[in-house]
C-alpha cells in the first residue's frame, strides 16, 4: 500500500505542483492518476520514489516513510516505467532488462534467465534479446521497459505515461498485455496518464487531479463516469461518459431473437429479407449479406463485415454497440466461444438500460471518495 | 602600449593581409563546400567518401601543408597563394560535412510540402533547403573562421607576412609587448569574423528571431 | 624535386642516429602522448562532473573561447615567460608541453561534456529511478553513451598536438618539427618537405588507429551497427504487431546517435592548430 499523506510540492519560484494530496493506492491494485497537463500527476508519481522531494507531507510504502529510506535501495524495490521507455541505448535488450537484478548483485546466469523469461512474458520474440534498443520499434521498446521494471519482481510499480508515445493500435495491445500481467502478478501500481479512456480501462481506482495539483475525485471508474463530483470532473471524463459507463453494466437477460443464417456458398435466391447473417461451419458470425444484390451464391467478397459482435456475458455497451454498428440494425450476440446465440435490437437494449437501476446512486463512500479514501 | 603606439602602421598592414589570407579561403571554401555538401546529400554513397576525404585532409598539420603546397601547385615557396589554397582546403574539409548535415537537418515534411507545391530541383534548393540550413552552416562557418585566423598566423614561419609576424618577431627579439599585441590582434580579428557571420546569419533567417520573441 | 624527397625519405642516413627520422618520430609521439595524457587527466573528470551535475558550464564556454587565441602566440608567450626559469633541455620541453596541454584541454573537455550532455534524459532518469547511485549512473550510463564524443574529442586533441608540436620546434622542441623549422631556416627544401610528409603520415596513422579504437570500444547500440548507412535520421516506423515484418521495417530505420561517429575525421567539427 502506498499512502500520500497531506503531500505538497512547491517549487522555489512559487508554483504549486501538488497541493495537499492525500491518497491511498491499495495493495495489489492499479491506481491511475489522471488529469490535464499541469495537474501534478507526474510530480506526485515521482515523489513516491523520491525522484522529486516533497516540500511537506509524508509518503509511506506499507507504513514506512520513504523519506527515511536509503533512496537507491528503495528505488531498486520499485519498478519504474517512463514515457519514452528510457532504455539504455548502449546495452542489449537482455542487458537492459537485467539492470536492476545486476544492481542487486544477482549473478550473471540468474539475471539472464530471469530476463529471458520476462521478455517472453511481455510478448517479445526471444531473438530480440540481443538487439539494441535503437533496433526496436517504439511499441517494442515500451514492452522492454515494462519487462525491465518487473525484472527484480518488485511489489510496487510506478508507471509514468508508459503507453502514450505509441500509436493507438499498439497502445491497445500494450494495455491488454499489461492487464494480463497484472491479473497474474497483482502488483501495487500507480499509473499516470492524461488519457481518460486509458484510466477507465486500466484503473481499479481512478484519481482525477485538477490544474494546480489538487485532487478532484477518486473512485472506481464506473462510479466516476456516472457520478462526477463537479463540472471539472464531468468535463474531463467527457461528453460520451454515459455511453462509456455502460461498459461497467453487465447485460443479463438480453431479449435474443433467433436469426436465419446462411453459410458461404449457399444460394440467396428466393430470400426476401433485406439482410441475412452469414456464419461459418461452427456457427461463428462472418458478416451480413444483401440477398437482393447477390442473387446467387454467397461469396466471401459480398459480406459486410462492419458490425461489432457482443458477448452475451458482456456489458450493455457491447450489446448496444453491436446493434448500432450492424448494417441490419440487429446486433449480433455470441457466447464465450464465439458461437452465434442470437441478435438483439437497439431499442430493446435501450429499454433494458432504462429499466436497469443506476448503480450506487447514494453510495455512502461518495463523499469519502472525494476526500481521497477511495478503495482503501 | 608604447610598442603598439609606435607600430600602428605595421599592425594595420599585417592585419589587412591577415584578413585577406583568412577571409578569402572562407568564401572560396563555402562556395566549394555547398555543391559538395549538396552532392553528399543527393547521392548517399558519396557521403562517406566525401566525409572521409575531408577528414583525411583535415588531419594534415598546418605547417606541413603550407610547406608541401609548392610541390603540389608548382608555386614559389614564399608565394601567399600557398597559404590561400591550404586554408581553402581546411575550410572545405570542415564545411562539406556541415553543409551536408545542415541540408539533412531540414525537416522531411517541409521538403515534401515544397515538392507538393511544385518546387523542383534548383529552386527547391535555393528557395527552401538552403535557407533552412543556414543556421547549421553558419555554425560551421564560425568554427572555420576562428580556426582560420589562428592557423594563418603559422604562415609567418614560412615567411608569408600577416599578424603572425608580430609573434615570431616578438619572440626572436624578446619583445613581449609585440607578442601580446599579436595575440590580441588575432583574437580581435577572430571576434570580428565571428560577429560578421552571426550578423549574416541573423539577416538571412528573420524567422528565427520571430520565434525567440514569441517564446 | 619529388625524386630527391623520396631519396631523402628512403636513405638510411636520414633514419639512423639520435637525431635521425626514427628517433624524431618517437620523440614527436612521446610529446603528443604526454600532453594528451596530462590534459585528459584534467579534462575528462572535469567534463564528466560538469555534464553530470550541470554545474559550472561556464568552464566549457571559457575553454572553447580560448580557441580564438592563436596557438603560435600562446606558444611564444609561454616560451618567453617560462623558458628562462628552467635550465638545460627542460627550458625547451616544459613551456612547449604546457602550451600543448593548455591547447588540448578545450577539445577534450567539450567532447566529454557534449557527450554526457547528449545522453538521453529518459535513460538517465530511468537509471536513477531504478536505483543507481551517482557514480553508477556516471560509469554505467553516462560514460558508455558519451564514448563516441569523448573519443572524438581525444582524436581532435591528438591531431592538434601533433600539429602544434611541429610548430613548437621553433621554440626549441625536438620531434619532427625540427626538419621543417631547420629546413626552412637553412633553405633545405628536401628535408623540409620530407619532414612535412612524415608528420602528415604520422597524424593520419594516429587518427586511423584511434578510429579503430573508437570502433572497438563504442557499443554497437550507439552506432546502429552499420556505420555510414545509419546516418540519415529517419523516424522509426511503429509496429502494429510485434511480429516479423514490422521488426524488419524497424531495422531499416535504425537511427544513429546525435553527432554520431564517422570512419575518419569524427574530429572535423573542432578547430585545429
Number of strands of chain A: 16
What percentage of the residues of chain A does DSSP assign to strands (E)? 15-25%
Shape of chain A: globular
| Rg of chain A | 25 Å
Tell me about the biggest sheet of chain A?
A: 6 strands, mixed
**How many domain regions of chain C?**
1
The CA-CA distance between the termini of chain C, in Å, is: 28 Å
Residue share in helix of chain C: 55-70%
Largest protein-protein interface = B-C, 57 and 55 residues
Portion of residues within helices of chain A: 25-40%
Q: What is the C-level CATH assignment of the largest domain in chain A?
A: Alpha Beta
Low-confidence stretches of chain C: 225-271
Feature tags:
heterotrimer; A: 376 residues; alpha/beta; Rossmann fold; CBS-domain; 2 domains; six-stranded mixed β-sheet; four-stranded antiparallel β-sheet; 15 helices; 33% helix; globular; disordered C terminus; B: 215 residues; mainly alpha; MetI-like fold; 10 helices; 0% strand; elongated
Structure characterization notes:
- The complex is a heterotrimer of chains A (376), B (215) and C (273).
- By secondary structure, chain A is of the alpha/beta class.
- Chain A contains 15 helices and 16 strands.
- The longest helix of chain A is centred in the middle third of the chain and has 18 residues.
- The N and C termini of chain A lie close together (9 Å).
- The C terminus of chain A is likely disordered.
- By secondary structure, chain B is mainly alpha-helical.
- Chain B has a single domain, classed as MetI-like fold.
- The mean pLDDT of chain B is 89.
- Chain C is built from twelve helices and no strands.
- The longest helix of chain C is centred in the middle third of the chain and has 34 residues.
- The two termini of chain C are 28 Å apart.
- Classes of the chains: A alpha/beta (376), B mainly alpha (215), C mainly alpha (273).
- Chains in contact: A-C, B-C.
